[in-house]
């Protein structure tokens, strides 16, 4: 059993009876976890959802994540009669740290939910995961900076963490492309980007790949001319970009305008990013956990269902939120309870579950374990890098 997810205290008391020459040993086990309660027929479980419905992340994260939840919600409430019906309570985090904290406090203390899905970004997860400690299960479908799940014994994440994606991605791309020097560009005030940049630097150093220049920008910037011009002048073999969605298209576009031919490797490049960047995205690469082109269980059915409902291709964020709800449904079915302790333990024991992400498990910290993917833009499409 996973020691992080079990709260069991065992006390051994040994009484030595000197006069009788006898000894006795009593093992007393105190269980602080409530006994699972079987849900009644027709029972609902209220699930909090924290999303950026307004603010700078609204377009990139809000609708894609919500659509993934909605698609999975319809399937689960129809096909899993053995678990309670899901009832979403959606809160807008306004794309801010303060908004995410406010949303978590409302869901925990006013709505008394057992589970919260979200938040979207690593910066928000860093400040909200500790709030949920010992109170509710929290599952972020999209945050991936290192160490966040370990902040909370009830915390889980479905996105692959930085320390999985980046070493794997660099190992494979370096072997095939043979780059010897690199440039890096990252958002110096965003937690995800700072962590990704640190991981890139660590792996490049370990492999003996030189970093000729490191440039920074800040969330909300729209002009990357100076940074990319300096990078272009040094002619690196590859450029690693660590950024949240709003800045990715602008970086790709400016690099193309400047005539940069070195491949850009960005975290979680989506089909929407590629469409928005147009020709500027050609040849860009990304390290991700899901791809439309991968033949994982149920992936084609997911793509067909999403296209039928929304008339377009899902993003990586949509896929992860869709998978998140199905993983939660499996845990609740196994727990046979709507209580946070039981759901927490059932999630911790998810092992080799077939999902659209692949064979899925959680590690001892609550981080996701499944195969990473590397994609490249060819002819305007994200395809597997081979």
* Rg computed from alpha carbons, rounded to a whole number of angstroms: 23 Å
User: Total strand count, please?
Assistant: 17
pLDDT under 50 segments (min length 5)? 1-36
**What's the order of the H and E elements?**
EEEHEHEHEEHEHEHEHEHEHHHEEEEE
> Helix/strand-derived class?
alpha/beta
Architecture overview:
Helices cover 38% and strands 24% of the residues. The protein has 386 residues and is α/β, with parallel strands linked by helices. A 7-stranded mixed sheet has the order 9-8-10-11-12-16-17, with helices on both faces. A 5-stranded parallel sheet has the order 4-3-5-6-7, sandwiched between helices. A 3-stranded antiparallel sheet has the order 13-14-15, with helices on one face. Helix 4 (162-177) packs across helix 5.
Task: Give short descriptive properties of this protein.
single chain; 386 residues; alpha/beta; seven-stranded mixed sheet; five-stranded parallel sheet; 24% strand; disordered N terminus
Sequence-ordered SSE layout with sheet pairings:
Layout: E1 8-17, E2 22-31, E3 44-51, H1 58-79, E4 85-92, H2 97-109, E5 115-117, H3 122-128, E6 137-140, E7 155-157, H4 162-177, E8 181-187, H5 191-206, E9 210-217, H6 225-234, E10 238-242, H7 245-257, E11 264-267, H8 271-277, E12 285-288, H9 299-310, H10 316-335, H11 340-348, E13 353-355, E14 358-362, E15 368-369, E16 373-378, E17 381-384
Parallel strand pairs: 3-4, 3-5, 5-6, 6-7, 8-9, 8-10, 10-11, 11-12
Antiparallel strand pairs: 1-2, 12-16, 13-14, 14-15, 16-17
In short:
The protein is α/β, with parallel strands linked by helices and 386 residues long.
């Amino acid at each position: 059993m996973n020691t992080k997810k079990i709260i069991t205290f065992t006390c051994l008391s040994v009484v030595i009876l000197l006069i009788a020459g006898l000894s006795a040993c009593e093992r007393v086990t105190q269980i602080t976890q409530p006994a699972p309660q079987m849900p009644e027929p027709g029972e609902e479980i209220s699930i909090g959802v924290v999303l950026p419905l307004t603010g700078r992340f609204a377009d990139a994260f809000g609708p894609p994540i919500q659509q993934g939840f909605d698609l999975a919600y319809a399937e689960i409430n129809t096909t899993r009669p053995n678990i309670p019906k899901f009832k979403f309570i959606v809160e807008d985090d306004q794309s801010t740290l303060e908004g995410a904290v406010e949303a978590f406090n409302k869901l925990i203390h006013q709505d008394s939910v057992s589970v919260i899905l979200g938040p979207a970004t690593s910066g928000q997860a860093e400040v909200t995961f500790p709030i949920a400690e010992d109170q509710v299960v929290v599952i972020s479908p999209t945050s991936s900076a290192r160490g966040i799940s370990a902040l909370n014994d009830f915390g889980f994440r479905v996105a692959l963490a930085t320390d999985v994606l980046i070493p794997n991605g660099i190992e494979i791309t370096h072997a095939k492309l043979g780059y010897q020097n690199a440039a890096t560009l990252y958002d110096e005030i965003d937690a995800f980007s700072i962590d990704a940049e640190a991981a890139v630097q660590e792996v490049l150093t370990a492999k003996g790949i030189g970093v000729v220049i490191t440039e920074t920008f800040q969330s909300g910037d729209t002009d990357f001319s100076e940074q990319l011009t300096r990078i272009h002048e040094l002619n690196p073999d590859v450029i690693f970009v660590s950024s949240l969605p709003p800045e990715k298209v602008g970086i790709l576009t400016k690099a193309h305008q400047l005539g940069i031919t070195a491949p850009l490797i960005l975290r979680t490049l989506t089909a929407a990013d590629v469409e928005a960047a147009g020709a500027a995205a050609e040849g860009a690469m990304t390290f991700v956990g899901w791809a439309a082109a991968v033949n994982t269980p149920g992936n084609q059915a997911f793509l067909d269902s999403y296209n039928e409902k929304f008339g377009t291709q899902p993003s990586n964020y949509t896929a992860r939120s869709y998978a998140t709800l199905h993983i939660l449904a499996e845990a609740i079915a196994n727990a046979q309870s709507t209580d946070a302790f039981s759901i927490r333990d059932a999630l911790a024991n998810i092992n080799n579950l077939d999902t659209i992400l692949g064979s899925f498990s959680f590690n001892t910290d609550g981080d996701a374990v499944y195969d990473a993917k590397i994609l490249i833009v060819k002819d305007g499409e994200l395809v597997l890098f081979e």
